[in-house]
Design a protein that fits this description.
By secondary structure, this protein is mostly beta strands. It is built from two helices and 13 strands. About 5% of the residues lie in helices and about 30% in strands. May play an important role in modulating bone turnover. Promotes the adhesion of osteoblast cells and inhibits the binding of fibrinogen to integrin receptors. In addition, inhibits osteocalcin production.
Length: about 220
Protein backbone atom coordinates (compact mmCIF):
# COMPACT_ATOMS: atom_id res chain seq x y z
CA UNK A 1 0.00 0.00 0.00
CA UNK A 2 2.82 2.38 0.87
CA UNK A 3 4.52 1.59 -2.43
CA UNK A 4 1.33 2.28 -4.35
CA UNK A 5 0.84 5.62 -2.59
CA UNK A 6 4.41 6.94 -2.95
CA UNK A 7 5.64 5.37 -6.19
CA UNK A 8 4.25 6.86 -9.35
CA UNK A 9 4.66 5.52 -12.85
CA UNK A 10 6.22 6.50 -15.13
CA UNK A 11 9.24 7.92 -13.27
CA UNK A 12 10.00 11.63 -13.50
CA UNK A 13 13.60 12.23 -12.42
CA UNK A 14 15.91 15.25 -12.76
CA UNK A 15 18.15 15.24 -15.82
CA UNK A 16 21.23 15.82 -13.69
CA UNK A 17 21.71 13.43 -10.76
CA UNK A 18 22.35 15.06 -7.38
CA UNK A 19 25.88 15.73 -6.14
CA UNK A 20 26.38 13.63 -3.04
CA UNK A 21 28.60 14.47 -0.07
CA UNK A 22 31.74 12.44 0.41
CA UNK A 23 30.97 8.92 1.58
CA UNK A 24 27.39 8.94 0.29
CA UNK A 25 26.99 6.97 -2.97
CA UNK A 26 24.26 7.40 -5.59
CA UNK A 27 21.54 4.72 -5.22
CA UNK A 28 18.00 4.16 -6.44
CA UNK A 29 15.24 5.47 -4.20
CA UNK A 30 12.78 3.19 -2.45
CA UNK A 31 10.60 3.06 -5.56
CA UNK A 32 13.54 1.94 -7.71
CA UNK A 33 12.91 5.01 -9.84
CA UNK A 34 15.35 7.93 -9.42
CA UNK A 35 18.91 8.13 -8.25
CA UNK A 36 19.39 9.79 -4.85
CA UNK A 37 22.18 10.17 -2.32
CA UNK A 38 22.18 7.29 0.14
CA UNK A 39 21.61 8.37 3.73
CA UNK A 40 24.49 7.86 6.14
CA UNK A 41 24.71 6.75 9.76
CA UNK A 42 22.42 8.85 11.98
CA UNK A 43 20.75 10.68 9.09
CA UNK A 44 16.93 10.70 8.72
CA UNK A 45 15.41 8.16 6.36
CA UNK A 46 12.06 6.83 5.15
CA UNK A 47 10.64 4.58 2.42
CA UNK A 48 11.92 6.81 -0.40
CA UNK A 49 15.15 8.07 1.15
CA UNK A 50 17.03 4.83 1.70
CA UNK A 51 20.18 4.21 3.76
CA UNK A 52 23.56 3.15 2.43
CA UNK A 53 23.27 -0.63 2.33
CA UNK A 54 26.92 -1.00 1.32
CA UNK A 55 27.78 0.18 4.85
CA UNK A 56 25.30 -2.27 6.40
CA UNK A 57 22.78 0.49 7.27
CA UNK A 58 19.02 0.13 7.46
CA UNK A 59 16.23 2.57 8.26
CA UNK A 60 15.63 2.17 12.00
CA UNK A 61 12.05 3.00 13.05
CA UNK A 62 12.56 2.07 16.71
CA UNK A 63 12.84 5.73 17.75
CA UNK A 64 10.12 6.99 15.39
CA UNK A 65 7.45 6.69 18.09
CA UNK A 66 9.34 9.20 20.23
CA UNK A 67 8.77 11.86 17.58
CA UNK A 68 12.33 11.94 16.27
CA UNK A 69 11.60 10.01 13.07
CA UNK A 70 13.49 7.08 11.61
CA UNK A 71 17.27 7.23 11.26
CA UNK A 72 19.90 5.13 9.54
CA UNK A 73 21.50 2.59 11.84
CA UNK A 74 23.30 -0.72 11.65
CA UNK A 75 21.03 -3.67 11.07
CA UNK A 76 22.23 -5.57 14.12
CA UNK A 77 22.23 -2.40 16.29
CA UNK A 78 26.00 -2.46 16.60
CA UNK A 79 27.68 0.85 17.16
CA UNK A 80 29.97 2.27 14.54
CA UNK A 81 32.03 5.36 13.88
CA UNK A 82 32.31 7.78 10.97
CA UNK A 83 35.67 9.18 9.86
CA UNK A 84 36.04 11.50 6.85
CA UNK A 85 32.59 10.59 5.60
CA UNK A 86 33.10 6.83 5.80
CA UNK A 87 31.40 4.55 8.32
CA UNK A 88 33.37 1.79 10.05
CA UNK A 89 31.87 -1.13 11.94
CA UNK A 90 32.46 -1.81 15.61
CA UNK A 91 35.91 -3.38 16.04
CA UNK A 92 37.01 -2.61 12.48
CA UNK A 93 40.66 -1.59 12.04
CA UNK A 94 41.48 1.11 9.47
CA UNK A 95 44.26 3.53 8.50
CA UNK A 96 43.23 7.15 7.82
CA UNK A 97 46.83 7.72 6.73
CA UNK A 98 50.02 5.72 6.46
CA UNK A 99 51.24 7.21 9.77
CA UNK A 100 48.42 6.07 12.06
CA UNK A 101 46.21 3.01 12.55
CA UNK A 102 42.80 3.25 14.21
CA UNK A 103 40.11 0.92 15.51
CA UNK A 104 36.41 1.68 15.86
CA UNK A 105 35.34 1.15 19.49
CA UNK A 106 32.07 2.05 21.24
CA UNK A 107 31.07 4.65 18.67
CA UNK A 108 34.48 6.34 18.73
CA UNK A 109 37.93 5.34 17.59
CA UNK A 110 41.36 4.82 19.13
CA UNK A 111 44.50 5.43 17.09
CA UNK A 112 48.17 4.50 17.48
CA UNK A 113 51.12 5.96 15.54
CA UNK A 114 52.84 3.69 13.04
CA UNK A 115 55.95 5.89 12.83
CA UNK A 116 58.45 5.70 15.65
CA UNK A 117 58.62 8.86 17.74
CA UNK A 118 62.10 8.14 19.10
CA UNK A 119 64.62 10.85 19.95
CA UNK A 120 68.13 10.28 18.64
CA UNK A 121 70.82 11.93 20.72
CA UNK A 122 74.23 12.94 19.35
CA UNK A 123 76.83 10.16 19.44
CA UNK A 124 80.49 10.07 18.38
CA UNK A 125 79.61 8.32 15.12
CA UNK A 126 76.59 10.61 14.51
CA UNK A 127 77.25 13.99 16.13
CA UNK A 128 74.53 15.87 14.19
CA UNK A 129 71.42 13.68 13.78
CA UNK A 130 68.47 15.14 11.90
CA UNK A 131 65.05 13.74 11.06
CA UNK A 132 63.92 14.33 7.47
CA UNK A 133 61.08 13.33 5.15
CA UNK A 134 62.20 10.80 2.53
CA UNK A 135 60.42 10.91 -0.86
CA UNK A 136 58.41 7.75 -1.38
CA UNK A 137 58.45 6.81 2.32
CA UNK A 138 55.72 7.53 4.84
CA UNK A 139 57.72 7.89 8.04
CA UNK A 140 60.58 10.39 8.46
CA UNK A 141 64.03 8.92 9.03
CA UNK A 142 67.14 9.97 10.92
CA UNK A 143 70.21 11.01 8.94
CA UNK A 144 73.67 11.91 10.16
CA UNK A 145 75.17 15.16 8.94
CA UNK A 146 78.84 16.06 8.84
CA UNK A 147 80.04 19.14 10.64
CA UNK A 148 80.27 21.11 7.37
CA UNK A 149 76.69 20.18 6.41
CA UNK A 150 75.49 21.02 9.89
CA UNK A 151 77.09 24.46 9.93
CA UNK A 152 75.93 25.23 6.39
CA UNK A 153 72.32 24.27 7.17
CA UNK A 154 72.34 26.34 10.36
CA UNK A 155 73.74 29.32 8.50
CA UNK A 156 70.94 29.10 5.92
CA UNK A 157 68.00 28.05 8.02
CA UNK A 158 68.63 29.23 11.59
CA UNK A 159 69.07 32.94 12.34
CA UNK A 160 71.27 34.10 15.23
CA UNK A 161 68.12 34.47 17.32
CA UNK A 162 65.02 32.33 16.89
CA UNK A 163 62.12 34.14 15.21
CA UNK A 164 59.54 31.76 16.62
CA UNK A 165 58.64 30.94 20.23
CA UNK A 166 60.40 27.83 21.50
CA UNK A 167 58.25 25.52 23.58
CA UNK A 168 60.67 24.46 26.28
CA UNK A 169 60.96 20.74 26.94
CA UNK A 170 63.31 18.75 29.09
CA UNK A 171 63.64 15.72 31.32
CA UNK A 172 64.41 15.84 35.02
CA UNK A 173 68.04 15.88 36.07
CA UNK A 174 69.33 12.39 36.70
CA UNK A 175 70.73 11.27 40.04
CA UNK A 176 74.29 12.29 40.75
CA UNK A 177 76.80 9.86 39.32
CA UNK A 178 78.75 9.79 42.62
CA UNK A 179 77.34 9.02 46.06
CA UNK A 180 79.94 11.26 47.64
CA UNK A 181 82.29 13.88 46.31
CA UNK A 182 81.92 15.62 42.95
CA UNK A 183 79.97 13.84 40.20
CA UNK A 184 77.71 14.91 37.37
CA UNK A 185 73.99 14.75 36.51
CA UNK A 186 72.51 14.67 33.00
CA UNK A 187 69.25 15.56 31.29
CA UNK A 188 67.85 15.96 27.75
CA UNK A 189 66.56 19.46 27.02
CA UNK A 190 65.92 21.93 24.19
CA UNK A 191 66.67 24.97 26.33
CA UNK A 192 69.47 26.29 24.18
CA UNK A 193 70.03 28.92 21.50
CA UNK A 194 68.67 26.80 18.66
CA UNK A 195 65.81 25.08 20.55
CA UNK A 196 67.37 21.71 19.71
CA UNK A 197 67.35 18.57 21.86
CA UNK A 198 70.74 17.93 23.41
CA UNK A 199 72.24 16.11 26.37
CA UNK A 200 73.25 18.55 29.11
CA UNK A 201 75.50 17.93 32.11
CA UNK A 202 76.14 19.73 35.37
CA UNK A 203 78.35 19.09 38.38
CA UNK A 204 76.76 17.79 41.54
CA UNK A 205 77.76 16.63 45.01
CA UNK A 206 75.48 14.70 47.36
CA UNK A 207 77.84 14.95 50.32
CA UNK A 208 81.57 15.19 50.94
CA UNK A 209 83.42 11.92 51.01
CA UNK A 210 84.63 10.87 54.52
CA UNK A 211 88.32 11.28 55.16
CA UNK A 212 90.32 8.09 54.95
CA UNK A 213 91.36 6.80 58.40
CA UNK A 214 95.00 7.33 59.30
CA UNK A 215 97.16 4.25 59.06
CA UNK A 216 97.84 2.58 62.41
CA UNK A 217 101.50 2.55 63.43
CA UNK A 218 103.17 -0.78 63.06
CA UNK A 219 103.41 -2.76 66.32
CA UNK A 220 106.98 -3.63 67.15
Amino acid sequence: QVCAQLCRRPCYCPWVPPRCPRGSPLVLDGCGCCKICARRLGEPCDFLHVCDQSQGLVCDYSSASAGTGATCNFEDDEEGCEVNGRVYREGEVFQPSCKIQCQCLDGGFNCIPLCQEDVRLPTPDCPYPRRVEIPGKCCPEWICETRDQHLLRDARAVPPLLRFPCQEWGTEWSACSATCGVGFATRVSNQNRYCRLETQRRLCMVRPCPALPAAFPAVS
